[in-house]
Amino acid sequence: MTKGSSGDTPDKASDRAPGDASEASEASDAWKRWHEQRVATVSAPYGPLALTGTHWLEDHPDGQLPDIPGRWTTDGDAVLLTAGRADGLTVDGRLLDGEARLTADRGPVDAARVARGERRLVVLVREGLWGVRDFDPAAP
């Protein structure tokens, strides 16, 4: 310890209170666990890093969304999706050949009603505006 004008102060790590090093180690370990969990969450197949686009239907009056097949239009309190078999879209696990009336998805991304292969197309509504979020687990 050194004597200064403000009193005794520790001048090296060994002079610190016994709990300081273990508390720092615990905090460091807790942060590492949080960081590992966060990386796993965001890089999960349908985590935030899999989101490749959010498309608002009002921005696409022709119903053609970028890189998403089918025709997506608003129909009052729902979205009307029109697609043919060649589009490869499924609704509730069945290949869509015709029209499907969709409401906003409420569950996790992997439970979205509309899919194309491993991609999930999540229907959403925010402040009365309809949109589609495209989650692709193969996104770079």
TrEMBL record:
InterPro entries reported in the protein's UniProt record: DUF1684
Span list, region Disordered: 1-32
Residue spans of biased composition, Basic and acidic residues class: 9-18
Top-level taxon of the source organism: Bacteria
Protein name: Uncharacterized protein
